[in-house]
């Protein structure tokens, strides 16, 4: 307006025309410079925020990829790993309210930078136990560890063992007991993940609102979509990094790798899980650096200076130059907002569509959180795959399918101009067909490996009793064996034995991975076996297992895509079925409920359920139960898939209820609901408005931890 008035004044004056053009050029030049400055600043912030989203998604997905590695390294059950995984959500919840409220009043870029430093500190803390616990000790018979003393696996008489060898073995055990306190260092992993959650908190609310405040209005949705797209790329690199580190031995650089007698296919194998956290921590530090040099404010775009929609900053920040009267008015406004909190909450929970969709989302996210957390473990145990291959498959196949599904859902909303009722149908259909496909995975499992004394008897019969009694038989009755050991060997009959001692082996030849056991009495008695020798390591799964794994991958990818298609329609349904002035509050309650009622408990009770399928627990050096060494494949399949499917089915019933309520309140002429503002009704606009809003949300759709939804 100021530029326009100057131009009119010069035009109607009697002076020469030359000054008019110069002032006009100056005004246009200054406006152009301001626009360039604004665009340049917001694009720098956009690039920095995209890198931060990449960093946090990478570290979060890398944690998922190391679940089994952490379980084995610290000798802890799956339920405890679930607690560690849920600690991220706990850290996030500790300060989400404070950050969301006070963050808008302070220097938002620097708060994000500080969050990156905290996030990197937590990531480094997760890796620290590796440097204080000592070297990883796995269960192996002395003859397979390059020992100079040759011992018989079947100790018929302990007097045959040289005293010095027994003393050395006992000394090693005592030394291990002195370091046994190191196993409690999983607490540092939990605290590190908690710090990660705290550091990640300001990134989304402050970063997205900063873009929304200072970007050109028509570009805001595009910018937010770019950030979310980069966030989906993060988990791909996270799982690929997990695949690379899982190939490397945990103590690489600290021990002679030629002395390692286990391979990545062994259930005792632990990869270099700590290495990825160091890399992720460095990336988080680098991602936070630019924010310390970004300004608190950016120039407002010309198109938004006179806009009726003011920024979050202008609504909540009391500027320094405001007088006392304005400050009192702000205080009165805050008091009025506080007074309206409980009526707003009552209004929100009185909306049947919102409350039903919230219940459906909580239950569905319970199934998704549990399924994603233990998917690597399920693939490893069910199909006999290594951690490295499992992470590679998830990162390269599953996550792109999720990203494509999210995009497809938004594209469908745009192309067919889907309204609220249509969005509810699309979301319901996506869930229904997704879980229907999941049902087919029950038929794509592998049978249990033949493990003498656990899944089959020593004579080959498919019977199983309590393994503590089943491990002992007539063929190994003359040996002094421990039922707690797990040092599997593969007999030439294709049967795995828990240890060389329990296989009744009388002699061994070679050392390390090339050790061969001879005169194994239990191997010779199995179904009239012709040979009684065995080699180090468990036997491979059946011949049909690789084919089943391929089928599983195909169905898993299709299921991931199908479930993801309903993400965008469901989010739009959530936004359209609440009153405009309650939108932010409703989204806050939604995110809080998902994190508290799904993100925290789901990994824990999924872990507890999975622990019930364990057939053979490892034992710690000084006694006590360690990590599970062998699972019942059939029981694991029914528990893991069954729990996921039951939760998904319950969520579908709530989604059907949402659709029923919407149909009941919709007019016969249109599928969209009228904006009557009554309690329980969806405040909607015209069909054209639905289309426009859907188009904006194709890229900007977000829900908690969507990057790792598989």
UniProtKB/TrEMBL annotation:
Keywords: Cell membrane, Disulfide bond, Glycoprotein, Ion transport, Lipid transport, Membrane, Transmembrane, Transmembrane helix, Transport. One of its GO terms (cellular component) is basolateral plasma membrane. One of its GO terms (biological process) is monoatomic ion transport. Its main location: membrane. Belongs to the organo anion transporter (TC 2.A.60) family. Signal peptide: none annotated. SUPFAM superfamilies: Kazal-type serine protease inhibitors, MFS general substrate transporter. It is found in: Cell membrane. It catalyses: L-thyroxine sulfate(out) = L-thyroxine sulfate(in); 3,3',5'-triiodo-L-thyronine(out) = 3,3',5'-triiodo-L-thyronine(in); L-thyroxine(out) = L-thyroxine(in). Residues 469-524 form the Kazal-like domain. Pfam families: Kazal_2, OATP. InterPro entries: Kazal_dom (IPR002350), Kazal_dom_sf (IPR036058), MFS_dom (IPR020846), MFS_trans_sf (IPR036259), OATP (IPR004156). One of its GO terms (molecular function) is sodium-independent organic anion transmembrane transporter activity. This is Solute carrier organic anion transporter family member. Residues 45-666 form the Major facilitator superfamily (MFS) profile domain. The keyword Transmembrane helix applies.
């Amino acid at each position: 307006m100021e530029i326009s008035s100057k131009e009119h004044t010069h035009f109607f004056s009697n002076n020469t025309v030359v000054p008019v053009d110069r002032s006009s050029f100056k005004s246009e030049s200054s406006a152009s410079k301001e626009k360039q400055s604004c665009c340049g600043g917001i694009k720098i912030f956009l690039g920095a925020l995209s890198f931060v989203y990449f960093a946090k998604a990478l570290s979060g997905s890398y944690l998922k990829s190391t679940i089994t590695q952490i379980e084995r390294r610290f000798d802890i059950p799956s339920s405890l790993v679930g607690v560690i995984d849920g600690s991220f959500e706990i850290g996030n919840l500790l300060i989400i309210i404070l950050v969301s409220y006070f963050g808008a009043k302070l220097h938002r870029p620097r708060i994000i930078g500080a969050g990156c430093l905290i996030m990197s500190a937590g990531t480094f803390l997760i890796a620290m136990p590796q440097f204080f616990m000592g070297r990883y000790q796995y269960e192996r018979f002395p003859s397979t560890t390059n020992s100079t003393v040759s011992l018989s696996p079947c100790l018929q008489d302990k007097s045959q063992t040289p005293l010095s060898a027994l003393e050395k073995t006992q000394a090693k055990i005592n030394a291990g007991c002195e370091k046994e306190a190191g196993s409690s260092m999983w607490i540092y992993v939990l605290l590190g993940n908690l710090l990660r959650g705290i550091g990640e908190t300001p990134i989304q609310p402050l970063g997205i609102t900063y873009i929304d405040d200072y970007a050109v209005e028509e570009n805001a949705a595009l910018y937010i979509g770019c950030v979310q797209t980069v966030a989906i790329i993060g988990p791909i690199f996270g799982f690929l990094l997990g695949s690379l580190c899982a190939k490397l031995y945990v103590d690489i650089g600290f021990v002679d790798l030629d002395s390692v007698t286990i391979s990545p296919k062994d259930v005792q194998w632990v990869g270099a899980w700590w290495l990825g956290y160091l890399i992720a921590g460095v990336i988080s530090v680098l991602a936070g650096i630019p924010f310390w040099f970004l300004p608190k404010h950016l120039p407002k775009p010309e198109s938004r200076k006179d806009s009726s929609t003011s920024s979050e900053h202008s609504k909540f920040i009391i500027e320094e130059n405001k007088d006392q009267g304005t400050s009192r008015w702000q205080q009165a406004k805050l008091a009025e907002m506080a007074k309206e909190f409980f009526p707003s909450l009552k209004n929100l929970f009185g909306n049947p569509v919102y409350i039903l969709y919230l219940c459906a989302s909580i239950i569905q996210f319970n199934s998704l959180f549990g399924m994603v957390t233990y998917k690597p473990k399920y693939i490893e145990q069910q199909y006999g795959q290594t951690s490295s291959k499992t992470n590679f498959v998830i990162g390269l196949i599953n996550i792109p399918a999720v990203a494509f599904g999210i995009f497809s859902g938004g594209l469908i909303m745009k192309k067919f101009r889907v309204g609220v009722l249509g969005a509810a149908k699309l979301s319901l259909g996506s869930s229904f067909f997704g879980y229907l496909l999941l049902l087919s995975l029950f038929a794509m499992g592998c049978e249990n490996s033949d493990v003498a004394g656990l899944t089959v008897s020593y004579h080959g019969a498919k019977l199983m009793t309590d393994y503590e009694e089943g491990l002992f038989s007539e063929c190994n009755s003359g040996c002094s064996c421990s039922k707690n050991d797990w040092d599997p060997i593969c007999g030439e009959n294709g049967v795995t034995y828990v240890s060389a001692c329990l296989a009744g082996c009388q002699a061994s030849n070679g050392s390390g991975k090339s050790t061969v056991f001879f005169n194994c009495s239990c191997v010779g008695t199995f179904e009239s076996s012709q040979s009684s020798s065995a080699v180090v390591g468990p036997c491979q799964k059946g011949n049909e297992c690789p084919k089943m794994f391929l089928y599983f991958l195909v169905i898993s990818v299709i299921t991931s895509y199908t479930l993801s298609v309903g993400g965008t329609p469901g989010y739009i349904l959530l936004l359209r079925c609440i009153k405009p002035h309650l939108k932010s509050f409703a989204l806050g309650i939604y995110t809080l409920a998902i994190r508290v009622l799904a993100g925290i408990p789901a990994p824990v009770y999924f872990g507890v359920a999975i622990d019930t399928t364990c057939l053979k627990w490892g034992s710690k050096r000084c006694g006590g139960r360690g990590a599970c060494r062998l699972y019942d494949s059939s029981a694991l399949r029914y528990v893991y898939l069954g729990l996921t499917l039951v939760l998904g089915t319950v969520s579908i019933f709530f989604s059907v209820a949402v659709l029923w309520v919407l149909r009941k309140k919709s007019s016969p002429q249109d599928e969209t609901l009228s904006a009557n503002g009554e309690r329980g009704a969806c405040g909607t606009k015209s069909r054209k408005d639905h289309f426009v809003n859907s188009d904006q949300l194709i890229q900007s759709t977000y829900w908690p931890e969507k990057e790792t939804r598989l």
